[in-house]
Amino acid sequence: MDNQKNVYLVKNILAIDALNHLRDQTTNTVQFRHYSDTVCRFVFSEAVQTVKTKQSEISTPLEKISVDQIEDEIIVISILRAGMAMLYGAMQLLPKIKIGFVGLERDESTAIAKEYYWKLPVINKGALILIIDPMLATGGSMLHVIKKLQEQKAREIRIVSVIASPEGIATIHHTFPQVAIYTAVIDRELNNRKYILPGLGDYGDRYFGTV
Ligand code: PRP
Ligand code: URA
Questions:
Q1: Burial tier of 22 (Cβ tally within 10 Å: 0-12, 13-18, 19+)
Q2: Cα angle at 172 between 170 and 175, to 5 degrees?
Q3: Mean pLDDT of 108-126
Q4: Which structural domain range is residue 188 located in?
Q5: Within-domain flag for 196
Q6: Residue of 27, 41, 106, 171 marked active site
Q7: Is 171 in the pocket of ligand 1 (CB under 6 A)?
Q8: Known catalytic residue at 110
Q9: Catalytic site includes residue 133
Q10: Strands 53-59 and 64-70, how do they pair?
Q11: Ligand 1 centre distance from Cα of residue 91 (Å)
């Protein structure tokens, strides 16, 4: 995993292999969901490696031991629709997370995201927020969510994505350099329709079969 200006890349051949399948245009919906689940678990897992832990004691059938346990209150905010693809793995890895949903859709002609839904759990002081959305393209959707979260008392906000563009990363870090971005890969650039190149096309459409 590389640390370049608060961007963390997953360096795992299984994640890269899954991503290769996602990129392949011949990958069908069933396969896309399968490989999406794999790569999403890897990036989510990386994003929680540095959560706060505390020592506590548990008893095995044979003796007592002192163990590290997750102390942080972790809130996952899924950006609809494509964020749903990351949520299943997140819930399995960390069943205790609280979950919020934000509905955003980019206008096809302007690529500007419009909000259609906003429902968050109570965010306590000191909570760690992970915003999940597989594609960080212009960064407009993420920026919208992070700006609105500024009123909350969370200790830290992290972004978890699958593919990030250099433009999206720059947009987020121009305003919020303290927000760490966890992703499987940084792709080359955006095209004139603000799609990521080489990318994988429209994540939501391919995941939900709406192509
Ligand atoms: C896609 C993607 C992100 C957003 C990224 O969603 O899932 O939410 O675009 O683009 P940005 O960084 O330029 O804002 P889309 O608007 O296609 O909606 P969907 O998830 O419902 O398909
Ligand atoms: N959203 C996607 O699903 N794909 C892109 O390339 C850009 C935004």
A1: buried
A2: 100
A3: 94
A4: 7-55+65-208
A5: yes
A6: 106
A7: no
A8: yes
A9: no
A10: antiparallel
A11: 21
Residue nearest to atom 4 of ligand 2 (CA): 202
Residue of 53, 110, 175, 210 with catalytic role = 110
pLDDT tens-place string over residues 2-21: 456 899 999 999 999 999 99
**Nearest residue (CA) to ligand 2, atom 2:** 202
72 lines ligand 1 (CB under 6 A): no
Kindly identify the ligand whose nearest atom is closest to the C-alpha of 114.
1
The answer, yes or no, to whether any atom of ligand 2 lies below 6 A from the CB of 196, is yes
From 47, 97, 48, select the one nearest 75 (Cα to Cα).
Answer: 97
Please state, in angstroms and rounded to a whole number, the distance separating the CA atoms of residues 172 and 193: 19
Residue 123 included in any domain: yes
**Structural domains counted in the chain:** 1
pLDDT digits (tens, 9 = 90+) for 24-77: 999 999 999 999 999 999 999 999 999 999 999 999 999 999 999 999 999 999
Residue 169 lies in a domain: yes
pLDDT number for residue 179: 98
Ranges assigned E (strand) in the chain: 3-4, 7-9, 53-59, 64-70, 74-80, 98-106, 113-119, 128-132, 135-136, 156-160, 163-164, 180-183, 185-186, 189-190, 196-197
